[in-house]
Amino acid sequence: MKERRSLCVVKVGGSLLRDGRSYIESAENIKKTFVDADRLPIVVVSAAKGVTDLLIEVAKGSKKHLEAVTEKYLSIASEFSSPKLSRRVHEELEHLKRVANTISGSFDAALQDLIVSFGERISKILMVEALEHVNVRAVELNARELIITNNIHGDASIDYVATANNLEKIVKPILETSATPVIEGFIGATEDGAVTTLGRGGSDYTATAIASLLGIDDVYLVTEVDGIMTADPALIPSAKIIKVLSYREAMEAALHGAKRINPKAFEPLEKFYGSTVFIGSWRTFGTKIQRELPADLAGPKLVMHKTSGDIPYIAIIGEGVGNTKFLKMIIDIFYEKAFSILGIQSYYYRPSILVYVQKTEELKILRELHKSLFEGAKP
Ligand code: ASP
Ligand code: MG
């Protein structure tokens, strides 16, 4: 078997999977970045872009959305000019259609999970084909067989003991053959075999769970942006990539809605093996997330706002921001600029400060905080 250090887990995000060409591009990048560098990646695939949203509508009974999914995946498959692949994708879609035909009036979370799972199931088949196309020997894994979860449909948690057993039994022998295993992210099954999903963005959680349970050092979460930023660049054009974050900081950012991370993703890393997570694009993996931060990297890492709920709040995230000195500095900024504070929440043991603000001042505050925390402006 190859040495453990050469193994890694690589999750390809749905934002990168739009058409046949983009599956091939991802496969080429997996080859170039990992396989050719003598590393052995375990590839975790998301559904193609937009498909999960479409499938959620399918689960509500929409025939129109079922057609859209069918058209999308058949068209991607047709780009490979492989009758065998097209047939297989067609069969999966027929299966999906049969399941969708069983929808009755009332909402059924288990049925929704089963329907939504086809997004990743078909995407995996396409990725295996794309890898073979660029001469990477790939092997399909089945998440419904490997990733065991509780029965909280729509937001299931992984049963680490059962899953670790499966990985040991099923994946370890495959790794010895040096073929590249490919698995669906986001989906699993209960012990009784009911299909579950892990919550939106759950492919990250699949990737970190596999890495931590197999003791693999590096996890790459590949997306279309180069890393996690100090603020939403759509609002703050001067936002920069954050080079290093701790699990706690990343988890806190995810809890307050950072778009690209699922908060549960850090649980297995905290509990078991502390793999390093790299987030970025094929151009560059700009953000590294690790268990511990060196003391000199404590301090604020990003500012974000959350508009859900009645009162908007700004979250300032970073190890140590809950200390009295930092709190005072933040309050001073609000005071100097005459912004109102409608509420403030901070605990010394949490890497965040939440400041509840007036909707009308939200953006101004965000800009002001970004300027003084990350652009060296004096408050
Ligand atoms: N496809 C799922 C979603 O869109 C899971 C993922 O992309 O991680 O939420
Ligand atoms: Mg997705």
Describe this structure in words.
The N terminus is likely disordered. It contains twelve helices and 14 strands. It has two domains: 222 residues, Carbamate kinase, CATH 3.40.1160.10; 79 residues, Alpha-Beta Plaits, CATH 3.30.70.260. It has 379 residues and is α/β, with parallel strands linked by helices. The chain is 41% helix and 16% strand. An eight-stranded mixed β-sheet has the order 3-4-2-1-7-9-10-8, with helices on both faces. The chain has a four-stranded antiparallel β-sheet with strand order 11-12-14-13, with helices on both faces. A two-stranded antiparallel sheet has the order 5-6. β9 and β10 form a beta hairpin. The longest helix has 25 residues. The site of magnesium ion has 4 residues, from loops.
Q: Main β-sheet: number of strands, strand sense, barrel status? A: 8 strands, mixed
- The order of strands across the largest sheet is 3-4-2-1-7-9-10-8
Please identify the top-level CATH class of the largest domain.
Alpha Beta
Q: What is the name of the CATH architecture of the largest domain?
A: 3-Layer(aba) Sandwich
Ligands (ions, cofactors included): aspartic acid, magnesium ion
> How many domains make up the coordinates?
2
| First-to-last CA distance | 56 Å
Mean pLDDT: 94
Strand content: 15-25%
Fold-level CATH name of the largest domain: Carbamate kinase
State the total count of DSSP E strands.
14
| Helix-strand makeup class | alpha/beta
Q: Count helical runs.
A: 12
Principal-axis shape: globular
H-E string: EHEHHHHEHHEEEHEEHHEEEEHEEH
Let me know the CATH homologous superfamily of the largest domain. Acetylglutamate kinase-like
